[in-house]
Amino acid sequence: MLRDDLRRWIALLVVCFGQLMIVLDSTIVNVALPSIQGDLGFSEAGLTWVVNAYSISFGGFVLLAGRLGDLVGRKRVFLAGVLVFTMASVLCGVAPAPAVLVIARFVQGMGAALSAGVIIALIISGFAGARERAQAMSVFAFTIAGGGSLGLLAGGFLTQAASWHWVFFINLPIGLATFLAGLFLIDDDRGAGLGEGLDLAGSLLVTSAVMLGVYAIITAASFGWASAHTLGFGGTAILLLGAFFRLQSRRRNAILPPRVLRIRSLAGASAARALLATGMFTTFFLGALYLQQARGYSSFGTGLAFLPFTGALGAMSLGITVRLVGRFGPRRVLAAGLVAIAAALFLLSGLGPETALFPRLFVALAIFGTGAGMSIMPMTLLAMADVPPEFTGLAAGMTNLSLQLGAAVGLAVLGTVAAQSGYQLAFAIAAGLVTTALLVVLITLRPPRPRLLEAVGGPANVDLQEAA
Questions:
Q1: Count of CB atoms situated within 10 Å of the CB of 389
Q2: What is the DSSP code (8-state) at residue 448?
Q3: Which residues are CB-contacts of 161 (< 8 A; sequence separation ≥ 6)?
Q4: How many CB atoms lie within 10 A of CB 155?
Q5: What's the mean per-residue pLDDT of the chain?
Q6: Is the pLDDT of residue 2 over 60?
Q7: Distance between CA atoms of 214 and 59, rounded to whole angstroms?
Q8: Residue 467 pLDDT more than 70?
Q9: How many helical (H) and strand (E) elements, i.e. helices and strands, does the chain have?
């Protein structure tokens, strides 16, 4: 029998592998899109649905997944998501026609939502001590941000060395290993129970609202932001969301109880997370386009160019950020990380067609990785700090939803800006959005409590305003 302490850390690696599959998928598929188009005969418009179908289902189901984890057990929901994601990946890999691939990608997004919706809650419940929780969140943060650049590297290698099919087949051994290991190593939790039943009407409303909203956002670049198409679907999403909140105020078994929305730290951190996502994930997309289209890099070479980001992020995640949080508090460390990211994006806004990889791009990506390593973990800690245990799954789903929506808006808006006005302006806008995230943090997030600072290694008598 494994000791409980060792078992918890191995279980952490298991859930992080589940997260890694999801994050890899967000970038690894993008690299393979030209090969997929040539092989299956996608039109230009149809090819976008290889990405859009996944984004719509992921965004639509992630909040529901988090609440299901609270009610029926997070382990069950996580393992179900891993299994669905893995089987859908195989179907993607063998897809003989465009329609089959798009449907498989939609199902794959559902599996990703089920898993991602409860991972933070599994970490929170598995690591009760704040210092250990901070260390576990550092590993999780590295998985999220490092997986993006790893996806560029892996996607380029697999596409060039084998074929596009392998960007999906690679999930089979990882997914099966994650499922089997999770089955034995993740602690069972019964959940609160369905009680009076799941809020089916609320679930349908919020899922439909988010899916329509994501669809309106990701198709706006094609139809126009002021088009009847975008305004129609976006307006319908807003109406459904309004009906959802009205229903929640009247339901005893609400899927999103109004009191959860009144948790200031959760709301503030989720808003900041959405703004950060517009800068972080857009950088992977725009950076890859810049290197391949403006500089002529291969897909594999593009992945290599992002290694300064991954290396800096890894260095921060090996314990540096945990010690900084213990010394200065999560709010101050988060603020410094956001400043670093904004500075890196400002440097990237000066890129030109003749800009060399070293020093400007290298330094900018290294600063970006350092800032990401300082931001993701403390932001997650602050978001979950005041959430009651019975709602950790729901709160995790909310933070994931904010990340997904922020990334979708960022890619749609800044991708359009880059195509019409150049990469420089897009990176400058991204820097402004991250600066806005910094303001949200400073205004809405409270200073850390003494017991949190003491638990992560900080002085028990630290002045709260100074630590903030």
A1: 11
A2: P
A3: none
A4: 28
A5: 82
A6: no
A7: 7
A8: no
A9: 20, 0
How does residue 193 score in pLDDT terms, banded at 50, 70 and 90? Answer: low
Cβ atoms within 10 Å, residue 296: 8
d(CA 384, CA 397) in angstroms, rounded, equals: 11
Enclosing H/E stretch for 342: helix 330-348
Angle among Cα 332, 334, 339 to the nearest 5 degrees reads 95
Nearest residue to 69 via CA among 106, 114, 26, 99 = 114
The C-alpha R_g of the chain, in whole angstroms, comes to 21
Residue 100 token pair: 């089959």
Nearest alpha carbon to residue 266 among 111, 139, 88, 397: 397
CA distance 206 to 240: 7
Q: Would you state the structure tokens that stand for residue 242, as one six-digit string? A: 């309004």
Distances in whole angstroms, Cα of residue 366 to Cα of each of 300, 328, 351: 19, 23, 15
Please answer whether residues 112 and 131 qualify as being in contact, where contact means their C-beta atoms are separated by less than 8 angstroms: no
Lowest mean pLDDT segment, chosen from 306-310, 317-321, 456-460: 456-460
Greater confidence, 308 or 418? 308
pLDDT at 194: 65
Percentage of residues in the chain having pLDDT higher than 90: 25
Q: Label residue 452 by pLDDT band (50, 70, 90).
A: very low
For residue 175, what are the CA distances in angstroms to 17, 168, 171, 204?
A: 8, 11, 6, 29
What residues contact 252, with CB distance under 8 A and at least 6 apart?
196
Q: b/e map of 47-66 (b: 16 or more CB within 10 Å)?
A: bbbbbbbbbbbbbbbbbbbb
Axis crossing angle, helix 98-126 with helix 130-161, rounded to the nearest 10: 160
**pLDDT above 90 (res 106):** yes
Residue 243 tokens, joined:
């009906």
| Phi, psi dihedral angles at 188 (to 5 degrees) | -70, 140
Largest CA distance in the chain: 65
